[in-house]
């Protein structure tokens, strides 16, 4: 069986200077699973997510993404960081959606979506443009291709950002608080796209404060606090009956 | 047209709409005084300049389009364009090196910037002109082998070469700082977005970083260009017959020092004014408020999303 779309992390440790942000975090995501990560601010959710696609270098631990050692190769004595080319290649199989969208402001929506396929994979422009149109339509933005990010609302920008990641045909999608920078009435349109994606069987890891989304869409849930996974398991189960005191306290505050 | 009456009841219908009445700026006594002084001073200077025979305006007119002067002007323009082009290219390389993650590379660029920005251009120019005193015979070749071409530095470092080398190396240091400043204005999120798509460093630089850094780099480069036009006058000390040196060559012969300096100054002034116009356009184009949208942006026609389905 192919290991595409899986994540297996064991004992991930990450420090910024003297401050340890992740203590021995384990994470397993199966193919097609939607995993939500919740927790208070500063608990290391973003850092964990960023480790999964190499935006942060892991200090220690084993990380396998899509069945491959991610970001390093192993010899009997050590793990060696991969060259940039190789790392970039592994990254193309993981999509990342940011809180602040991070669309390229110098490119139209269509060019943003084409950027990955054309500039990284060397796809043919005409073909990539057609694909971009299709993706735009799939996130409900047919005909918005010529708009620059500054001409789009936050919700629209975020949907373009999702389409941009999808254009690389990733096996895994990572979302870092994709709706936190949005006006409340725009949250729904982005969540709808994400639900749609989950239904299609995309492996997703989502850092979110949207408990409704977690309850409705998520298969598994991780509650993190101070760099530790405090509680994990079935999403609905945890949201309904949290076992740990810290989880209970957190859920009481946000629900 | 404009009617003002003491009694509100007598107001005619043709009275200017209150919302359209001009609002007059308050002018203080100081402003009137400043105007008066300015006019007086201007008139005084003009009178003196036009009546003092030592200005020799006839001589100025005679030499203004003299061939020697025009040749000098051409050389000045050439030096400006050439050093700005080479300096910008080298500056780009230095800026990239300076922001490299590899320490020795970043350090090398850092030392370069410190040296070239920390010493006067004039000294640098004279230094390059006399470099043969340090290395009379340089051999270009492969180290530790006999293969190589000997180069006589004395003949290589002609005044013009020294001028080009000196100005370019110096300008590169300043351009590097400008370009690096532009790079650092590009948000971290942009770099992360490019990284997460798996873009290589070169693509990232060309398609994401440089286009977004341009709005701050271009106006600053325009300023450097205008500055360089005048900075080239320094190479006159090397005996390069650019604009100033051409003027000096003539007055060394005729002793008409002041008129010829005026000729050179007028040319510098004219060229600076000519260059200022495109510069102001560049600044306007890339100013904060207008650079939010790329210039090819069409007016957005927003339609309702058509529902989410794939
Ligand atoms: N580049 C960095 N350098 C130093 N410290 C960092 C860096 N990135 C994150 N941190 C620290 O690591 C800790 C965890 O940060 P992280 O962004 O992962 O938290 P988070 O759970 O995503 O919080 P939030 O909900 O506010 O986004 C924080 O205390 C933060 O200050
Ligand atoms: Mg975060």
Describe this structure in words.
The complex is a heterodimer of chains A (255) and B (310). Chain A is α/β, with parallel strands linked by helices and 255 residues long. Chain A has helices at residues 45-52, 84-91, 109-120, 125-138, 154-166, 184-199, 211-217, 235-240, 245-254; strands at 7-16, 19-29, 34-38, 60-65, 68-69, 72-74, 79-81, 94-97, 172-176, 203-207, 220-225, 228-234. In chain A, 37% of the residues lie in helices and 26% in strands. In chain A, helix 3 (109-120) packs across helix 4 and helix 4 (125-138) packs across helix 5 (154-166). The radius of gyration of chain A is 18 Å and the shape is globular. By secondary structure, chain B is mostly helical. Chain B has one domain: Orthogonal Bundle (MetI-like fold), CATH 1.10.3720. Chain B is flat and about 85 Å long. The interface between A and B is large, with 49 and 32 residues. The site of magnesium ion has 4 residues of chain A, from helix 1. Magnesium ion binds next to helix 1 of chain A.
């Amino acid at each position: 069986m192919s290991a595409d779309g899986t994540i297996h992390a064991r004992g991930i440790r990450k420090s910024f200077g003297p401050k340890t942000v992740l203590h021995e975090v384990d994470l397993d995501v199966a193919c097609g699973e939607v995993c939500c990560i919740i927790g208070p601010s500063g608990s290391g959710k973003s850092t964990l997510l960023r480790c999964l696609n190499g935006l942060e270098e892991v200090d220690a631990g084993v990380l396998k993404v899509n069945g491959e050692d991610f970001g390093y190769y192993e010899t009997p004595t050590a793990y060696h960081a991969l060259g940039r080319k190789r790392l970039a290649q592994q990254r193309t199989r993981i999509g990342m959606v940011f809180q602040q969208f991070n669309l390229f402001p110098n490119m139209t929506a269509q060019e943003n979506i084409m950027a990955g396929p054309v500039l990284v994979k060397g796809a043919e422009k005409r073909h990539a443009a057609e694909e971009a149109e299709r993706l735009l339509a799939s996130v409900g933005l047919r005909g918005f291709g010529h708009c620059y990010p500054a001409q789009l609302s936050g919700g629209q920008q975020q949907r373009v950002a999702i389409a941009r990641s999808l254009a690389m045909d990733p096996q895994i999608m990572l979302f870092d608080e994709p709706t936190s920078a949005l006006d409340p009435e725009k949250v729904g349109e982005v969540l709808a796209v994400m639900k749609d994606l989950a239904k299609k069987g995309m492996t997703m890891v989502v850092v979110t404060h949207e408990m409704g989304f977690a309850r409705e869409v998520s298969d598994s849930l991780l509650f993190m606090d101070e760099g530790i996974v405090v509680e994990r398991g079935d999403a609905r189960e945890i949201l309904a009956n949290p076992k740990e005191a810290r989880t209970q306290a957190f859920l009481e505050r946000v629900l | 047209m404009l009617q003002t009456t003491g009694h509100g009841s007598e107001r005619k219908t043709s009275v200017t709409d209150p919302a359209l009445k001009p609002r007059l700026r308050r002018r203080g006594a100081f402003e009137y005084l400043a105007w008066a002084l300015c006019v007086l001073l201007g008139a005084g200077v003009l009178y003196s300049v036009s009546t003092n025979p030592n200005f020799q305006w006839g001589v100025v007119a005679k030499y203004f389009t003299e061939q020697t002067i025009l040749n000098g002007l051409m050389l000045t323009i050439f030096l400006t364009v050439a050093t700005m082009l080479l300096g910008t290219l080298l500056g780009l390389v230095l800026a990239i090196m300076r922001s490299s993650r590899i320490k020795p590379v970043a350090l090398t660029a850092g030392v370069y910037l410190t040296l070239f920005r920390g010493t006067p251009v004039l000294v640098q120019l004279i230094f390059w002109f006399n470099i043969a005193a340090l290395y009379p015979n340089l051999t270009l070749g492969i180290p530790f082998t006999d293969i190589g071409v000997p180069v006589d530095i004395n003949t290589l470092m002609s005044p013009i070469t020294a001028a080009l080398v000196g100005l370019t190396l110096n300008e590169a240091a300043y351009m590097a700082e400008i370009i690096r400043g532009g790079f650092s204005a590009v948000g971290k999120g942009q770099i992360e977005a490019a990284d997460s798509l798996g873009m290589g460093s070169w693509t990232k630089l060309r398609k994401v970083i440089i286009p977004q850094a341009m709005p701050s780099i271009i106006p600053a480069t325009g300023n450097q260009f205008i500055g360089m036009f005048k900075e080239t006058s320094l190479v006159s000390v090397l005996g390069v017959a650019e604009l100033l040196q051409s003027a000096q060559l003539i007055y060394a012969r005729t002793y008409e020092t002041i008129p010829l300096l005026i000729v050179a100054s007028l040319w510098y002034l004219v060229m600076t004014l000519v260059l200022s116009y495109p510069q102001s356009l560049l600044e306007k184009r890339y100013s904060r408020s207008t650079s939010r949208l790329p210039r090819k942006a069409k007016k957005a026609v927003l339609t309702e999303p058509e529902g989410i389905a794939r």
